[in-house]
Amino acid sequence: MNNSIFGESGIQITVFLILLPxxxxxxxxxxxxxxxxxxxxxxRKLFEFNKKLEKLTPEEIQAYEKRKKEAEYQIPANELSGxxxxxxxxxxxxxxxxxxxxxxxxxxxxxxxxxxxxxELAKLILYFIGFSIFWLLFGTTVGEYLGIKFIAPDAxxxxxxxxxxxxxxxxxxxxxxxxxxAMVGLxxxxxxRVSNIQIHSLKxxxxxxxxxxxxVLSGTICLMAGINNAGGEYRxxxxxxxxxxxxxxxxxxxxxxxxxxxxxxKEIYVSNWYIIAAMMYVVVILVVAYIPFWQDGLAETxxxxxxxxxxxxxxxxxLTLGLMYYFLPQQLNKPIYSYSxxxxxxxxxxxxxxxxxxxxxxxxxxxxxxxxVAIVASVGMVIPVxxxxxxxxxxxxxxxxxxKNSYTLPFYIIGIIFYFTGSMQGTVExxxxxxxxxxxxxxxxxxxxxxxxxxxxxxxxGFIYTLIPRITxxxxxKISVGIHFWLxxxxxxxxxxxxxxxxxxxxxxxxxxxxFIQSVVLMAPYWLWRAIGGTMxxxxxxxxxxxxxKMVNKKTEVMIPRTPAEILEAKxxxxxxxxxPTK
Length: 583
What we know:
Layout: H1 9-54, H2 58-72, H3 119-151, H4 163-195, H5 202-224, H6 239-261, H7 270-290, H8 297-332, H9 339-353, H10 368-380, H11 382-395, H12 401-404, H13 409-429, H14 432-438, H15 443-472, H16 478-511, H17 516-552, H18 564-576
């Protein structure tokens, strides 16, 4: 029994992680069963109530009419106070006997329903978002297990669950699964909206969805089975898998180009500049990274740096910024502060970001001039980052009051803040001395989470919470949106700050030529905080998935009339819908 696979602590943890969604499913099933029972019970009560309505006598109806008028009566303002107007400035008397919501949670503004896209396009967008959330939960569950492995390195001895296989499963799934699906799905909304025309082909959109899913699923299976593209970070999927992914992107790129070409508007709005450029860049990036001509020796290292940074900056960052240029003005109900700043940020990011890949290999065998160019370009990235950040924040001018009553704008604000801080931290990390301290430590892990999570993910969450209610007509519970926001933000801070502090001390130990094992011992408490922060982030994703379910769930509650006005309205509707048998 000691040799049983279930004797491995890693297997036990894995089983526990698998049981969590199973238990959650059981809870949901119980809740759904009770909800169905409650619905049937209410329908029965409603049936009995309707039978009573049919037997209402004229005297009873007259009594209800009289009571309705009494209930609608409002006492004149000066009836009791004379010439002094009534005032309840502290809100002490208002709804004193009714508790409709938790009083210590501020009221958040609701959305304005806008049914301006076809149901077919709405369905495609919801499927993209739905699959993105599935891959987010799957990918971050793997990440949660990896975080546990840092504080329990002997958690398992199963090859499919080894750190070397699961780590690329986590990164690639949140890259090509969560973020890419969400971005493409949201783009299918923005491209036709700012072009003021229907999307060229819904069928191509569905083909893209299928191909991207096939790529992520097959890539995950290959990685766990040990089939990979060697050690290139974020480039672990083998080329046939990425060819499928690229084919899906190419279909949507063509779809978007034709849609923009047929646009009704004269100008091409800046969002479409970013979105289409990002889709062109990701295809170029994948072709460059997987063509075998330069995949040997030092050239392969240079290509790896190019691929890794262009994937983040010219695919994820570029496309998400394009979405921000649409959703932020739309959410604030005012135009973007400066179209010119948007174009400045667009071209300077293309100029500088495409040159910075080699700053990951400072003090390597790469030519010194190439390392210097990468550092200079990293400093040049200050221009698009400052231009973009200023553009977004200045758009808030005169509208900051909206943040207080919005459950979506906090996600925008945090995304913009991390856009500035995370990008600037990347510039600083490219300097030779800081690179000497931080490179090859967990600091780069913290930095990648500041950008891919703090910027990309927070922005995508804000966009999703903005869009989905407008196409489904249903809002998420505002309390659970707040829970999602704070768990994700506090968890991210625990995760990144602890790793940055520990990695700085770790790098200094290395520079002092201390034994490597000493740095491992040093990092133990920081890895614990990493696991705590990661767990908070992981839980927030489950809350996000619940919120998405509430936004797309079509079930409506059975409402039993209680007030005289509701009773009379129910009687009127019943009378209008009475069945009259034919002879």
